[in-house]
Structure to design on (414 residues):
């Protein structure tokens, strides 16, 4: 029988093991959604969706735990094609020209034609798997990154891969000591990515040779200091989060720590995003969105949104947008952090009272009753329609995926 104290520790542990998604594009030319948008359409897959939507030329691409990669028309949400794979797709698609790249739980990297969904090539890794310690909370796979004819990604087999993007042939691979489920960052001649072995790696992106590696501090619950965060390169600093509750600023040339920011209740779960000389990152147990100076790690402002932020941030001219595991999408003023509006999923509206007070605070009596084991937290996120994904923004819509298995498109009202 779990004690309430033990359940609280389990809860704290569980929400730190979070998927992090590929970096969003800054949409500086798009006008702000100053008024709350309205629901335009939904598309149901039937299984939870962890991957983020990727929009290109009026088509949105995304994968689902129903093992399908989807291509939908963004105007009405009608299906253009879908491709069935041999495993759950928890990887966000990468689009380059006519090609769509993604990973599946079947251990394969796929390249498919963006117009038809036909498979151009497949590459087999040594096998996909979740992190053995607390595997229930290792939610996502690495997402591939394209650069100069090569495709880069990490794998559950513990390796970092570089493939020829045209034919899927192996160019190089580098073995780390554990699962690599973060999405790599590229800058000049190097690839940067962390591993669950607690190290953060810089390797030559052409040869796969190690330039340096950085060891996280570690923490009593996570002594390895598993490096799960997706990195962001800002000038000479790499900003990346670890399970040891730290957000690190690592010098990209020397691999030493320029600063680290320890969060009191948990680490910075949301994949960092950069806009207007500021890094925006969401936190887990602190329930806060932070605007951070990349040179010092200090916050310019922070805003409490009541629950965990696991996805990254998207931007319009002067606003930012992100989701929480409560099933709410938030829009904030970029300069001040003021909440302009929020949109709630149907799951939140229907089931909120089961888990939260009228002030959106977790009910104390859910521990040991509604929440009896770790997996019950994931069930709660699914029930609420929690948002792991990073929203995609077009001129007139905000598109996001949810753990309730749906994709939502919100339409501009003015």
């Amino acid at each position: 029988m779990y004690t309430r104290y033990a359940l609280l520790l389990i809860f704290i542990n569980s929400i730190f093991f979070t998927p992090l998604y590929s970096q969003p594009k800054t949409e500086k030319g798009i006008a702000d959604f100053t008024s709350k948008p309205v629901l335009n359409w939904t598309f149901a897959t039937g299984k939870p969706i962890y991957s983020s939507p990727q929009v290109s030329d009026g088509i949105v691409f995304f994968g689902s735990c129903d093992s399908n990669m989807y291509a939908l028309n963004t105007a009405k949400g009608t299906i253009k094609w879908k491709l069935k794979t041999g495993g759950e797709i928890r990887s966000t698609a990468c689009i380059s020209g006519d090609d769509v790249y993604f990973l599946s739980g079947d251990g394969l990297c796929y390249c498919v034609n963006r117009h038809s969904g036909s498979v151009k090539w497949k590459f087999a890794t040594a096998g996909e798997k979740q992190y053995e310690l607390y595997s229930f909370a290792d939610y996502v796979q690495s997402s591939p990154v394209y650069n100069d004819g090569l495709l880069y990604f990490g794998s559950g087999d513990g390796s970092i891969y570089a493939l020829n993007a045209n034919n899927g042939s192996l160019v190089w691979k580098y073995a780390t000591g554990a699962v690599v489920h973060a999405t790599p960052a590229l800058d000049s001649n190097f690839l940067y990515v962390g591993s669950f072995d607690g190290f953060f790696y810089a390797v030559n992106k052409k040869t796969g040779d190690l330039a340096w590696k950085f060891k996280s501090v570690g923490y009593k619950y996570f002594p390895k200091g598993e490096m799960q965060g997706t990195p962001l390169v800002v000038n000479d600093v790499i900003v990346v989060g670890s399970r040891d509750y730290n957000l690190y600023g690592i010098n990209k040339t020397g691999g030493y720590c320029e600063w680290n920011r320890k969060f009191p209740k948990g680490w910075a779960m949301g994949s960092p995003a950069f806009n207007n000389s500021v890094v925006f990152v969401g936190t887990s147990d602190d329930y806060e969105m932070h605007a951070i100076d990349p040179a010092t790690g200090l916050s310019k402002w922070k805003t409490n949104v009541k629950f965990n932020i696991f996805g990254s941030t998207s931007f319009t001219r002067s606003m930012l947008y992100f989701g929480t595991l409560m099933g709410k999408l938030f829009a904030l003023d970029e300069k001040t952090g003021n909440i302009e509006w929020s949109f709630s999923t149907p799951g939140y509206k229907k089931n909120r009272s089961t888990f939260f007070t009228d002030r959106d605070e977790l009910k104390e009596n859910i521990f040991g009753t509604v929440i009896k084991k770790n997996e019950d937290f994931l069930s709660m996120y699914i029930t609420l329609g929690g948002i792991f994904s990073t929203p995609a923004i077009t001129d007139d819509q905000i598109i996001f995926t949810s753990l309730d298995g749906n994709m939502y498109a919100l339409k501009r009202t003015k």
Summary: The two ends are 54 Å apart (CA to CA). Helices lie at 4-14, 346-355, 375-384.
